[in-house]
Amino acid sequence: MRPSGRNLSEMRPVSIETGVMRHAEGSCLIKVGHTHVLCSASLEERVPPFIKGSGQGWVTAEYGMLPRSTSSRMRREATSGKQGGRTVEIQRLIGRSLRAGVDRQALGERQITVDCDVLQADGGTRCAAITGGWVALRLAVNKLMKAGDVKTDPLISEVAAVSCGIYAGQPLLDLDYPEDSEAGVDGNFILRGDGQLIEIQMSAEGATFSRAQMAELMDLAETGVSQLVEAQRKAVA
């Protein structure tokens, strides 16, 4: 049995509440079990210098965890004067994942920054941030389209992510913290709504894994992402 009591292929309850921030062009609060992430998207009529004049837009992301998002207080990274390596790695992952679902030429020379702030962590924060970040991005792009600032929809497909792993020899979908911390194999799977793969992060955390086991986890991930995409579509409908 899983510590959570869920079936091996059962997701945690997922909810996405939109319009939770007054000033952001797009925002949502995504809850995946006890993991809660606040996501916002901000539009700027500028792009980074390295693509200026290209006619293409840019989507980037920032990520952070509040001090009491975990069981004991974390020190704010701002007090140390720099971001930790984990934070930098995760926000780069979020940015490149979201860009994989964007036609940057159709977006035009403007930047959308997606901010993901973890209010409460119980495993899978980067996956929830990507999934909720796409909802915030979709809402921001809807405003651009409504205003007539873009001619065609620059979003190619939904982007969602889910964790899978091997715990006590069994493949599991959507690991919470107790499962993730004890998993022999841990993986994050980022897919588009049309089924195209964006990124897979897998590592042996205490046990190696076979190609067949990886295929099992991939099947679980596709099941989980399909449910997340359905939740995204309902949220922005």
| Beta-strand share of residues | 25-35%
Overall shape: it is globular
In round numbers, the mean pLDDT is 96
Got a strand count? 9
CATH architecture classification name: 2-Layer Sandwich
Structural class of the helices, strands and pairings? alpha+beta
> Which superfamily, in CATH terms, is the homologous superfamily?
GHMP Kinase, N-terminal domain
CATH fold assignment: Ribosomal Protein S5, domain 2
- Helix and strand sequence: EEEEHHHEHEEHEEH
Structural account:
The model has no long low-confidence stretch (mean pLDDT 96). Helix 2 (85-99) packs across helix 4 and helix 4 runs parallel beside helix 6 (211-236). It is built from six helices and nine strands. It has 237 residues and is α+β, with helices and mostly antiparallel strands. A hairpin with a 2-residue loop joins strand 6 (159-167) and strand 7. The chain is 32% helix and 29% strand. It has a single domain (14-236), classed as Ribosomal Protein S5, domain 2. The strands form two sheets. The protein has a five-stranded mixed beta sheet with strand order 1-2-3-5-4.
Throw out a few tags for this protein:
237 residues, alpha+beta, Ribosomal Protein S5, domain 2, 5-stranded mixed beta sheet, 4-stranded antiparallel beta sheet, globular
What secondary-structure arrangement, pairings included, does this model have?
Layout: E1 14-18, E2 26-32, E3 35-44, E4 58-65, H1 77-80, H2 85-99, H3 104-107, E5 111-120, H4 125-146, E6 159-167, E7 170-173, H5 177-182, E8 185-192, E9 197-204, H6 211-236
Parallel strand pairs: 4-5
Antiparallel strand pairs: 1-2, 2-3, 3-5, 6-7, 6-8, 8-9
Helix pairs in contact: 2-4, 4-6
